[in-house]
């Protein structure tokens, strides 16, 4: 699927990977995927395609675009994790949430989307998804988060009133990344019900 361009609230532009369902008719819910610390890489595009295959309009925005556009780090590369750690501390959470808002608006306006939106975040993106639950009227929220990212964010993110129903996984309890289709069952019932 193609990359699309989204206009940020401050007038900048960033790319996002868009994947459309092929096995549905009519408008369907949308899923906004928030990247790991490795960027909007092949793994995140694969997760995005997995959700589209399950009948969602799915999008994965490039959250690191303000630091460096199109960051794609291979987590299995010998220096992958260390390289990713150079981006995460420089990431501005407030701007990230604003960019997430722009991605949600883009998806809501997409002709294939019925305007019901869920968010899914992995690692760094899990923290942004949690913040989004406080700030956005999303129908569902699923996070696979690194809890230590929470310590880096302002109290306003940690103490917001959540507007979305949630499903959360703590990576400390996992030895591998959970299967994204497992989390999707929670979003399906919330987005479509």
What keyword list fits this structure?
disordered C terminus, alpha/beta, 193 residues, 6 helices, Rossmann fold, globular, 7-stranded mixed sheet
Task: Describe, in plain words, how this protein is organized in 3D.
With 193 residues, this protein is α/β, with parallel strands linked by helices. The protein has a single domain, classed as Alpha/Beta hydrolase fold, catalytic domain (Rossmann fold), CATH 3.40.50. The protein has helices at residues 42-53, 80-87, 93-109, 124-135, 155-158, 180-192, and strands at residues 3-7, 13-19, 28-34, 57-61, 113-122, 140-145, 165-170. α3 (93-109) crosses α4 (124-135).
Strand-helix topology:
Blueprint (H helix, E strand, L loop, with lengths): L2 E5 L5 E7 L8 E7 L7 H12 L3 E5 L18 H8 L5 H17 L3 E10 L1 H12 L4 E6 L9 H4 L6 E6 L9 H13 L1
Parallel strand pairs: 3-4, 3-5, 5-6, 6-7
Antiparallel strand pairs: 1-2, 2-4
